Write the structure tokens for this entry.
Amino acid sequence: MKLPNYYEDPNTLHVGTCENRSYYIPYGQDLNSHATLLSGDWRFGYYPYPEAVPADFINPDFDDSSMDTIPVPSCWQCHGYDYHQYTNVNYPIPFDPPYVPKENASGAYRTTFTLSAEAAKQRNFLYFEGVDSCFYVWVNGKFVGYSQVSHSSSEFEISSFVNEGTNTLAVLVLKWCDGTYLEDQDKLRMSGIFRDVLLLTRPKSFVRDYTVRTFLKDGGAGVVRVSVEADGEISPVLTLCDADKNPVGEAVLADGVYEFTVLNAKLWTAETPYLYTLTISTADEVITQAVGIREVYIKDGVVYVNGQNLKFRGTNRHDSDPVTGYTISKEQAIRDLTLMKQFNFNAIRTSHYPNAPWFTELCDRYGFYVIAESDIEMHGYLSTYHSDRENTLGLLDEGGVFTEAVLDRVQRNVIRDKNHPSVLIWSLGNEAGFGYAYQNAGRWTKEYDPTRLTHYESSTWDHSNRFDKSMLDLYSRMYATTEEVDSYFAEEGPKKPFIQCEFVHAMGNGPGDIEDYYQQIMKYDGFCGGFVWEWCDHAVNQGIAENGKTMYGYGGDFGEYPHDGNFCMDGLVYPDRTPHTGVYEWKNVVRPVRARLVDAHKVTLALKNMLDFTDMADAITLSYECKADGELLCSGEIAVPSTAPHTESEVTIPVTLPKTAADCYLKLTYLTKTAHELVPAGHEVGFDQFLLSGSAVRRLNTVTDEATAPTVTEGDRFLTVSGEEFTYQYDTFTGIFSSLERGGETISMDYSIFRAPTDNDRNIREEWERANYHHSQTRTYTTEYAIDGQTVQITSTVNLCAVTVQSIMKFTVIWTIDGAGTITCKIDAKRNTDMPYLPRFGVELTLPKSWQQVSYLGYGPQECYIDKHHLAWFDAFESTVEDMHEDYIKPQENGNHYHCRKASVGNGTNGVTAYAATSFDFSVSNYSDYELAVKKHNYELEESDFVTMHLDYKNSGVGSNSCGPQLLPQYQMNDKEFEWEYQLKF
Ligand code: IPT
């Protein structure tokens, strides 16, 4: 069919649409909804381009019986049409704004609805909540209008198009339009009517729109101001009721604005999401609106909500599901919100577009602060040939092509969601540079709604400060390093509050920098918090593999070009919302209570209430446990003293410490005291742990009293060390035991510096590969041995090296073997600091496959690293090799345990136990590091026929360098010189 070419015309954004309004559902005075949901199975035809669509599909008499059906709402790629594509920055189409490919996939939709004689005489509207990317609408064969902006609502009045009885609605959706250039968000690219479609039947005159604003007065009163905009003649009656449905105050009308004064107002916060109900009643309709009384403002560079300076502990959230794509039900959204609450989030950025129109309603109800973001992202121009951040943007923005479109998108976001207390901040969009269009849209936003804060990260891209940014309230950055944060605050002079709209990139194994950033957030009043990138992994559920695992597809799995591989899987939860270990790390870092050990002898602690509005005693119950090397000494509950937000109080725990060298740890666990709609009472919100006593260095006993020294036989290369029950082969070329044989089972050992790169290793990995760390080897310069009383001692000087490159590390290793076969290893090393930091340094043991039982004394039970261990605590744990594996969809290094004193792997009869003089990192796996490094999907992993055990002097941290800064030096295996001692008992 031939269409008016609105879809390549940036001056024609909408045709026949109603003016923007806030999202609400009107009801009749009989309380019947005036909205009918048209969603359901619609007729559907998929065509390669609009010209191929039969022109008469819009007509009521078109025979659609041979068309397919598709559910509305849905994305057509999720129903077998077209193909999936994942790209982050790169535009999936040639860069030729405002033009899009001629082959522009087109979805023709048809459905019918019926109207009673009464309804047909009323005013009727179609309300589309979201269509990607643009669409044309016909009712009963007549053209009604056109719209775009995928994640915003489009409303059409169809009163003059409808009749009593059956009416035919036809919609043609195009995959691309000029708006595609503004919707270059980092996501799987999908199309179709992906949100609900409503039919609204309304009286001749009605409330077209209304705006609610709230203010606080000294003395605890809240003011609710409502302005009402009518279509036709109405005499609205406004009432405001509290949560118990009791009216509070009378509406006073002055200058066209209704004002309620609520004495002793209960204020809305994310912790206390108290809602009043506003009712706007006209002769034929009732509209209700939840109202939260609250105020947000900035004073001296600090963000305040209701007079309290608070922090956003946030995450970026997309509407995304591995089965339903962009189509998200309330149940799915509530599942996300439930997890977010349970994992201590208080804020959400709707990256990078408005979420479903009822989403902020849920945030009002459950208590989340929202950065509501406009549907804009244009960073694809950065991938054009010869682009640069500041100037290429001119093509899209300064040149004026999209000036109108940017304003339109910002207005659609602001006006739709303006009545929600949860929305504290308007975001103009994401990564689209800063030019006239943004200056313009920013000014409009601040003028339209001075009661909220404004945000737009890309304003910082205008380095030469050519544009006015005074309308932006926050200084927003993404992935700023801790150093950059420090220097921002070190600068003299007044400054805007600092916010990280994206940080701690949660891709794969990580993030490892949450605590470091949180320390800064706590340190600087002007640092109002951050939003983790991002909430969930995006992937496509491609069915179940033979081994029972779900086959999640990511970029490149659909044969598409271009694509960005697994960069879409950078969430805190797996696509099915199973939490990643990283979200446990987040949860405990931002725990609502932080304890400080004041006196280790008296066991006195200061508890700081990290909540912003709730007394600690009202929110938290506290239990404690004291253990010596994992053995319980005592446990109990402690009454939580009344503690105002942001203040401390002291408690003393009744612990009597034993006189032992064992590590005595005290663990405090914080539980919710009362139930929240999404969080039961007794839910663990975090813990603290303190070492009360113990000795940092443990003596490793090398001699068993009765045993006699082993014997040594020299071969041309190997030293054979034998005792009554064992035969060990020491390789004098490599400086380590090539085999350890006892009881009919053999294990082998090697030095190890390699790990299966994590997603966060993606940059340093190139250095590691250049340094040939994945081909490292050892050679000895000298080896000597001696029999000394009851032990054999072998000493080697060793070069750790790799082909082509210079020495990586040199060390002296002393092995002591006693009559029972216990091996003690002492290493004294110097690393070549010309070489990059190491993934790890330690030994790798190859164990019999039947050794599947694991126990360890160290940090667990979840995987943990030097920079990601706040989710874990020190204890004695038992597990299995299988359970120690964290099954990342894109396999990588996983399952480490930080700061272990001891670790055993065995089968109940035989096994090995490692002891540390100080500590080691420990992991064990049924997969080899090589397997984890090369396989692209978890369902392709094949177990090896042995068990791989790692004992490391140090395994480098994980950080968040997949998009965030480099791993901080203190978490790198970068030691210049070090000593390490451990022992193996069999
Ligand atoms: C930045 C984007 O805002 C976000 O959408 C996502 O792509 C994220 O980071 C990376 O996962 S883009 C990046 C080039 C800074």
In short: Residues 88-89, 186, 352, 430-431, 478, 502, 533, 567, 570, 963 surround IPT (CB under 6 Å). Residues 6-202 form a domain with the Jelly Rolls fold (CATH 2.60.120.260). The mean pLDDT is 96.
